[in-house]
Amino acid sequence: MTPLLSPNIHRRVPSLYLDASSSSSFFYKTSSPNPTTLERKFSVFAAADMDLAPTTPWTLPEEFLKRTFSLISSDKDRNSVSLVCKDWYNAERLTRRHVSIKNCYSISPEIVAARFPAIRSVTLKGKPRFSDFNLVPADWGADVQPWLNVFATAYPFLEELRLKRMVVTDESLEFLALNFDGFKALSLLSCDGFSTLGLESIATHCENLTELDIQENSIIDLGGDWLSFFPETLTTLQVLNFATLNSELLLLAPQLTELGTGTFSDDLDPNPTSITDLANTFAKCQNLHSVSGFWDATLIYLPIIYPVCENLTFLNLSYASLGADELEQILPRCKRLRRLWVLDTVGDKGLEAVGSYCPLLEELRVFPVFPVDPSQPGVTESGLVSISHCPNLNYILYFCQRMTNAAVITVARNCPNFTHFRLCIITPYAPDSITNEPMDEAFGAIVNSCSDLRRLSVSGLLTDLTFEYIGKHAKNLETLSVAFVGDSDLGMECVMRGCPKLRRVEIRDCPFGDVALLSGLERYESMRSLWMSACNVTMEGCKKLAEEMPRLNVEVINDEEDGGDDFVANKVYVYRSVAGPRKDAPPVVVTL
């Protein structure tokens, strides 16, 4: 067995060996006094009676490795074990059933298929996240069809496809429905290019469908009822997120565990009999643990979901302009709630109810109503402090128009287990709303108190001191999003120098230039991507980065809005790729 890397790589994993205590039973041992989850999984097969010949350390039988690796579901764990040696690399690739690709241009579908021959599930992401804010041209790329062409040959047994920010046409959906006989789950998030015609193909031909999630996409409505194309014999649906509410379909799918609906006011008769009938239909869906949608819902419609509230762990009300009174009607019934998404129309009073009725809450997202009305306070620092009394809270996305250092410091003290802290103060460069000071100490408290922080979004009036705090304390940070903040290039230098696990950086409208861009030279190959727009980066700086790091794809987007300036690089997207420069870049994308 020839190691792929130097023998020092073995220091990264526990000391594994099999002890022949009898002729038919072998036992797993580890040098660690507290075995990890991965190590315990190895013991499952090692402790079983198997006809194995005694082996030397690190030389484990192929069948043992395959059966053991098949128990490992974590992509991170699988990536780690594949680095140990060639035997482990081969065993891992042959037993992997799911692959997650965070950038569709970081690798080619041919390379994926060659390495992993038995994939059943694929997660694929396309456009940069700032495409959600219309900062990426519509024809930028990320077409799913080239991937489907390869998958049809390599993975005819594909069962699950999850796409995010990809271009998906009706032809692609029809291709998917006709070429994968055992296909079960389709999730499209922030995708575009398809219409209800493509959904008809999925409904007609995917006879084993268990999941269809198409809620947050730009879907062209060509008329007709595509839902009617589902056969009446379909009883496999467990997850359904779409844009209309239909009691007949619910009756056909009482086994649903996740349901996303659309508008109430357009599709539902508000008379008491209709509401009662739909509530009775909901009552039959006793397995529901996730409910979302409810566009335009008001107090009169809320009793519809009361029968399923007791088992809900996720409630997405980010499409419903509910006030505090409506929220207070729902939350006391949701005693098991762990994830909650709402609009800022609930106000601080609504968030007080969250703090009172949701002791198990782990994730809260508060979205703004657009267009933002400055005369409406939405949620403030008071609401943020209220929800910090939820002891299990570890993820927050909070859009607000004002904030204070004192409030965030209190939250950091109350919630030291944050892994995701995304505070978005809508007004650019907004200082502490009481002291008028920069918000540096607020984010300094977060990165200092929350040692497991992996994702951070910063906003408001910030100086380079915030980035010094981040570089000093945020040692587990993986994703950093920055907008309308900072003093100089020093800020980004501190981050690049001090955050060893950084994987993705997103920057817009900040005073960072070429020095900041080039400060990550030693880091970019270990990162997934860097986005910089409306900063002070030049074409010369981008060219130097491309010359110094030839294995990176350095793309400059010069759309018409940029004025065609050949000196300024207004939008820069940098990512690592083993596939080289992409071949489908439109004219507005220049690859250096």
Structural commentary:
It is a single chain. This protein is α/β, with parallel strands linked by helices. Helix 12 (347-357) packs parallel to helix 13 (381-387), helix 13 runs parallel beside helix 14 and helix 15 (440-449) runs parallel beside helix 16 (464-473). It is globular, with a radius of gyration of 26 Å. The relative contact order is 0.05.
Helix and strand arrangement:
Layout: E1 17-20, E2 26-29, H1 37-46, H2 62-69, H3 75-81, H4 86-95, E3 98-101, H5 109-115, E4 121-125, H6 145-154, E5 160-164, H7 170-179, E6 185-189, E7 192-195, H8 196-205, E8 211-213, E9 218-220, E10 239-241, H9 247-252, E11 258-260, H10 272-283, E12 290-292, E13 314-316, H11 324-330, E14 339-343, H12 347-357, E15 363-367, H13 381-387, E16 395-400, H14 405-414, E17 420-425, H15 440-449, E18 455-458, H16 464-473, E19 479-483, H17 490-498, E20 504-508, H18 514-518, E21 529-533, H19 539-548, E22 552-557, E23 571-576, E24 589-591
Parallel strand pairs: 3-4, 4-5, 5-6, 6-8, 7-9, 8-10, 10-11, 11-12, 12-13, 13-14, 14-15, 15-16, 16-17, 17-18, 18-19, 19-20, 20-21
Antiparallel strand pairs: 1-2, 21-23, 22-23, 22-24
Helix pairs in contact: 1-2, 2-4, 5-6, 7-8, 11-12, 12-13, 13-14, 14-15, 15-16, 16-17
